[in-house]
Amino acid sequence: EMLKVLASVVLEYWPEDCGNPAVKPKTPTQRVVNGEEAVPHSWPWQVSMQATLLPPIPYLHNCGGSLIHEEWILTAAHCFIPLNKPSLHRMCLGKHHMNSSMDVPSVEKCLQVDKIIRHEGFVYEQDPSDITYDIALVHLSEPVNMTREISPVCLPKPGAVMPAGTPCFVTGWGDEKGRHILSLNQAALPVIDFQTCSKPSYWWDTLRPSMICLGRLFIPQSAGCFGDSGGPFACSVAGTWEVHGVVSFGPQGCIKDKKPSVFTRVSAFSHWIEDSIRKFMYENNKAI
Ligand SMILES: *[C@@H]1O[C@H](CO)[C@@H](O)[C@H](O)[C@H]1NC(C)=O
Ligand SMILES: *[C@@H]1O[C@H](CO)[C@@H](O)[C@H](O)[C@H]1NC(C)=O
Prior knowledge:
Peptidase_S1_PA, protease, 6-stranded antiparallel β-barrel, single chain, Trypsin_dom, 6-stranded antiparallel beta barrel, Thrombin, subunit H, 31% strand
């Protein structure tokens, strides 16, 4: 009975208005090979996750993330190596320029964190050959107010797999060489099917069904890493943007033939996301 009550709470708790940016992103039909600057605030779920070694040392951008709810951010588990303490992180929303003084100040919101939930199966720190379960949730200390510049992305349907060739967008402040750039960039990267990406000459057995590969097979210079670790890979499904991937890992040096970028497939973790949020709400006596 209790579980039934909790299940209905979580379903009602989910944002209805998601994946619908007030400022429309530019979605060129002609793919831009090396990424391009995004229309400011057209990816309003994009998070700049920032960490400090020890306050008051300034925070530095270290990963991307996706706002999926007024209190929750979806990202990669490896973003919290080695800093796994909520007090060392803050989540900045409504950003376009990395340098805040170039953004409209009232638009940007940086919020404190009170909980980091990494997937229990993430064992990369003990075994660096295993990068499965590279997914995490971050709980904000207070709910963020939705604005024109800040709004959530939708989650995909459980188990949904985007077919090869679907154009989707990776966004972030990292460029194809793994450097940080000054304004938010986007790149349309096609999905590479599992069968191809798990061939011995590609990622072979490093690739698991809970991952997705993205890139362009015939343009090796562009098959590198875009965005930032933890950041979104979003696809427009019937006019609504859904987060299908979380940037997980790419080849060393970022650009290498037959080593496309690998993302955690969000639809493989639908139950984990709901269960983790439900457990957190239950433990914190939230909204029950
Ligand atoms: C940020 O932008 C301001 C205003 O354009 C500039 O004065 C400042 O030097 C920039 N800071 C950095 C770290 O680039
Ligand atoms: C959201 O708006 C309310 C009411 O204006 C305000 O009290 C609160 O501090 C805002 N929250 C954040 C995180 O900005």
